[in-house]
Design a protein that fits this description.
About 40% of the residues lie in helices and about 20% in strands. Strand 7 and strand 8 form a beta hairpin. The structure holds ligand GEK.
């Protein structure tokens, strides 16, 4: 799966950066990009493995919405019962092509399909695990609630949503502190100040983080009555969302 290619997409200085897209240029270096941009990325993947082992239920579907190259998809597949079916969804052609190659190489036995699809149209059914590993933040805000409602309606009893997101903070001091620590993390991982500022400009209005209270509120009114924080690494969090009561 590793391509070994280092991300230098924003190292070039020609012209203003255009809006960020998950195109072939990004897909080619995506592993390096996400590891060097998301503090604790591998810990989040480990939690997906652990939670899949704990919550996957025989003869159900397990979804990875926004699967990119399949890192989270394969963690799910490698940690569930073989009677489960794995469905990875991404709307980037470049990601899906590379993800399918990575899945081909994986020897685990649960059936799997990778679909090129807008996750806003994905029907979630008979699901015990739904993962959104840093994907909801790229969905227009107006569509986020409906997606979560579809997920909550599609879960079987005992099913869970694992939601990992970059977050912002209402308190300006806290926001500044965590944002600056995140910038320091990126420098620590070898990005130059130029690359950091060009990528930040490209992500403006593309990656829109919510606050933790906003996530909790949205999860609450879409049917998730139990929400546990599982990881926080600077301004990146994982929430385990469960529906324990039968809502309307
Ligand atoms: C990992 N989970 O490595 N429909 C389908 N896919 C979408 C949509 C949409 N509407 N919008 C964005 N995506 C992965 C990392 S990356 C996170 C997920 C990041 C896809 C998009 O094409 C991209 O592949 C993915 O969501 C987000 O564990 O880059 O920070």
């Amino acid at each position: 799966m590793p391509t070994g290619k280092t991300d230098n997409v924003y190292a070039r200085t020609v012209g203003p950066p255009r809006a960020f897209e998950f195109d072939a240029q990004v897909a080619d270096v995506f592993e390096s990009m996400i590891e060097r941009s998301v503090p604790g990325y591998h810990l989040f993947l480990d939690m997906i493995s652990l939670l899949t082992e704990r919550f996957a239920i025989h003869h159900t579907n397990c979804y990875d919405l926004g699967c990119s190259l399949g890192a989270s998809t394969l963690r799910i597949r490698q940690h569930l019962p073989e009677t489960c079916h794995v469905i990875g969804i991404d709307n980037s052609t470049a990601m899906v092509e590379r993800c399918r190659i990575n899945v081909e190489r994986d020897r685990s036995r649960a059936s799997i399909e990778i679909r090129e699809e807008d996750l806003r149209h994905t029907v979630i059914e008979n699901a015990s695990i739904v993962v959104m590993n840093f994907t909801l933040q790229f969905i227009p805000e107006k569509d986020r609630s409906l997606i979560l409602k579809h997920i909550s309606d599609g879960l079987v009893d005992g099913g869970v949503l694992i939601l990992c997101e970059k977050v912002s903070f209402n308190d300006s001091e806290q926001q500044t502190l965590l944002q600056n620590l995140h910038l320091a993390f990126k420098r620590f991982k070898g990005y130059s100040d130029l690359e950091i500022s060009r990528k930040r400009a490209a992500l403006e209005n593309v990656l829109i983080p919510d606050t933790i209270p906003e996530h909790r509120e949205r999860l609450g009114f879409t049917g998730f009555d139990q929400v546990e924080p599982i990881v926080q690494c600077l301004n990146f969090i994982a929430l385990l969302a469960r529906r324990t009561k039968n809502g309307p």
